[in-house]
Design a protein that fits this description.
Helix 7 crosses helix 8. 41% of the residues are buried. The protein starts with a strand and ends with a helix. With 249 residues, the chain is an alpha/beta fold. Bound molecules: 2-phosphoglycolic acid (PGA). 2-phosphoglycolic acid binds next to strand 8.
Length: 249
């Protein structure tokens, strides 16, 4: 299975011109490789023009609403994201939970709507400092995946992002990430009752990933990929991350 590397640009950069310049400096790493798939998640407003210009790049959005259309001022629907050429959507990111007060129930509605629209969902879960990882992951996974159809398993990616590691420069160690991955698998097994299916779910790591540690998540941490925030906005650093994952196996 290809390793997935997701670039989450968050609320950056402030102009389309800069976003274009940035993408233009990356083409070699954005090409689909035998063992790697790179997904770029810019701001909503940059999606359409970027897709028009960089048609071969795989894009995702950083969020979406739970209805496809209607009287929901300010909302961006999964159907619109799909129409903009996106293949993926990130949902339940800790910054959405924190600043937009998103709950697991809202994330669940978004997830079902996004899958209905034909998008692949990158579902973020993770504990805050001092919280029980077991309790938090169990709660987030069971609530966010309510009514999830196992037929859509190939369209689901779970991103383990410990909140204390996101944007802090303090990444989780690869062996800790592996422990979290095993825990997620155990929780999924409890929910889905079928080991083969729980083992098929793809799990990636996010939280202060940098070039030095990136490959370790794949080799030691057995992760299926990475969700990269801050480092994805530094072209040289991001290229190194992609290359180190590519060369790790
Ligand atoms: P970070 O962000 O790499 O800057 O910690 C990760 C994320 O937002 O997914």
């Amino acid at each position: 299975m290809r390793k997935l590397i997701v670039a989450n640009w968050k609320c950056n950069p402030t102009s389309l011109r800069k976003a274009e310049q940035f993408l233009a400096s990356l083409p070699p790493v954005l090409k689909r490789k035998r063992n790697i798939e790179v997904v770029v998640c810019p701001s909503f407003v940059h999606l359409h023009p970027l897709k028009n210009r960089f048609s071969k790049t795989i894009f995702g959005s950083q969020d979406c609403f739970w209805e496809q259309e209607g009287p929901y001022t300010g909302a961006i629907s999964p159907a619109m994201i799909k129409d903009a050429g996106c293949a993926y959507v990130i949902l339940g990111h800790s910054e959405r939970r924190r600043y937009a007060k998103e709950t697991d129930g809202m994330v669940n509605k978004k997830l079902l709507a996004a899958l209905d629209a034909g998008l692949k969902v990158i579902l973020c879960v993770g504990e805050k400092e001092g919280e029980s990882i077991n309790t938090v992951l169990k709660q987030q996974l069971s609530r966010c995946l309510k009514k999830f159809s196992l037929k859509k398993l190939d369209s689901l990616i779970i991103a383990y992002e410990p909140v204390w590691a996101v944007g802090t420069g303090r990444p989780s160690k690869p062996d800790n990430a592996l422990v979290a991955k095993m825990l997620i698998r155990r929780i999924l097994l409890g929910m889905w009752k079928k080991r083969v299916i729980a083992e098929r779910a793809r799990i990636i790591y996010g939280g202060s990933v940098n070039r030095k540690i990136a490959a370790g998540y794949i080799t030691e941490g057995k992760m299926d990929g990475l969700l990269v925030g801050g480092a994805s906005l530094r072209p040289k650093e991001f290229v190194k991350i992609v290359e180190s994952v590519r060369d790790s196996g």
